[in-house]
Design brief:
FMN, Chorismate_synth, flavoprotein, Chorismate_synth_AroC_sf, binds ligand EPS, alpha+beta, lyase, binds flavin mononucleotide, about 400 residues
Length: about 400
């Protein structure tokens, strides 16, 4: 299974090709549009999200509501494109230097300067257009199909915000995925606790007033997993490692942890490892889930619990010192628009990246050209695991 995305933030559209889903999976544009809507929202977003109303157009691989087994092709239009046709057009121009809005002032913390030096661009727009997290809309679209595939196999996924700029949601996470979804959807920052929500909004407001930005921590939970997705045999078959890579690949993510995560550093082994129990009805389970659903790079059958930390947004209204690459003169950046917190949106992206990696692992273990084959294979594996 693989997917590729193409398209610039202010270009005409994002384009996606996805390979590997079996035939017979029910997929509707409405399912994808609902997840795209979720990603666009959340407290702290900037004015761009007023312009965009993300809608997917299915242009291949799905017919009469079902996958055919052919590559799936999707398109998401950028409504902002109409304001950028001159600056972003593909046609050759005689004097590129004449283009208005050439970007020569790299933002600390963004991809601008490294990308310019690496690719030799004097207009850093050639870097920022593709490094923009606009691309995460495409990832949510493919992740929605992964979610639908997993759901047909009894695997459910939800996400939430745990922390924003030091304001933390300490409340107990409900076990039910539906409960997590219902509560977080009612929260403007996608957390579980009302008081925490107010504190997070305050932190975002204060940062905005100061021309600053804030980051945070998001969590994704997946339930209903078969035992033994992933493998211990190679570094690149360990599923926790693959999920960590996928989460780290989200723009501005700087760290990943599973279960108790970094807190394990200060705990004795007896308070970290999950004791094993057995019953005839359920087979082997763990009494706790402090390891977050993985041992040896394989799923234990307990919920996968993965968290990612997002750094504060790099584009700031409060100027940070940088150097103009054309004049080599120092300047203090001034900008037009930006998100000042995208942690709630990023929690939606994280859910979808985890869904994708789980879907890949399911496909690797169970194969199948038709959905009914996959369903049967997963059911047979569940039965074997319980009887083991
Ligand atoms: C949903 C989302 C929205 C983002 N919005 C912005 C933004 O408005 N302005 C900005 O400078 N960075 C934004 N970022 C972060 C940058 O895309 C990111 O910092 C940049 O691509 C550099 O990559 P790195 O931070 O992973 O090193 C956003 C990230 C996400 C996940
Ligand atoms: C467009 C999206 O996010 C963008 C991500 C982003 C960045 O630098 O990552 C910068 C901003 O873009 P603009 O400069 O056009 O305002 C965000 O709006 C989106 O999430 O769909």
């Amino acid at each position: 299974m693989r997917f590729l995305t193409a398209g610039e933030s202010h270009g005409p559209q994002l384009t996606l090709i996805i390979e590997g889903f079996p035939a017979g999976l029910a997929v509707n544009a409405a399912d994808i549009n609902e997840e795209l809507r979720r990603r666009q929202g959340g407290y702290g977003r900037g004015r761009r999200m007023v312009i965009e109303k993300d809608q997917v157009k299915i242009v291949g691989g799905i017919r009469h509501g079902y996958t055919t087994g052919a590559p799936i092709a999707l398109v998401i239009e950028n409504k902002d494109w109409k304001n950028w046709t001159e600056i972003m057009g593909p046609e050759p121009i005689d004097d590129p230097e004449s283009v208005k809005k050439q970007v020569t002032r790299p933002r600390p913390g963004h991809a601008d300067l490294n990308g310019a030096i690496k690719y030799g661009h004097t207009d850093m727009r050639n870097v920022l257009e593709r490094s923009s997290a606009r691309e995460t809309a495409a990832r949510v679209a493919v992740g929605t199909i992964a979610k639908l595939y997993l759901k047909a196999l009894g695997i459910e996924i939800a996400g939430r915000v745990v922390e924003i700029g030091g304001a933390r949601d300490e409340s107990e996470r409900p076990e039910s995925i539906d409960a997590i979804r219902t509560i977080t959807e009612a929260s403007e920052v996608r957390c579980l606790d009302k008081e925490a929500e107010e504190a997070m909004k305050k932190v975002i407001d204060e940062a905005k007033e100061n021309g600053d930005s804030v980051g945070g921590v998001v969590e994704t939970i997946a339930t209903g997993l078969p035992v033994g997705l992933g493998s211990h045999v190679h570094y690149d078959t360990k599923l926790d490692a693959k999920i960590a890579m996928a989460v780290m690949s989200i723009n501005a993510f700087k760290g990943v942890e599973f279960g108790e995560g970094f807190a394990m550093a200060s705990l004795p082994g007896s308070q970290v490892h999950d004791e094993i129990q057995w019953s005839k009805e359920t087979g082997y389970t763990r009494k706790t889930n402090r390891l977050g659903g993985f041992e040896g790079g394989m799923t234990t059958g307990m919920p996968v619990v993965v968290r990612g930390v997002m750094k504060p947004i790099p584009t700031l209204y409060k100027p940070l010192q940088s150097v103009d690459i054309k004049t080599k003169e120092p300047f203090a950046a001034s900008i037009e628009r930006t998100d000042n917190c995208a942690v709630p949106a990023a929690s939606v992206v994280c859910e979808h990246m985890v869904a994708w990696e789980l879907a890949v692992a399911v496909k690797e273990k169970f194969g199948g050209d038709r959905m009914e084959d996959v369903i049967q294979a997963v059911e047979a594996h569940h039965k074997r695991s319980v009887a083991f």
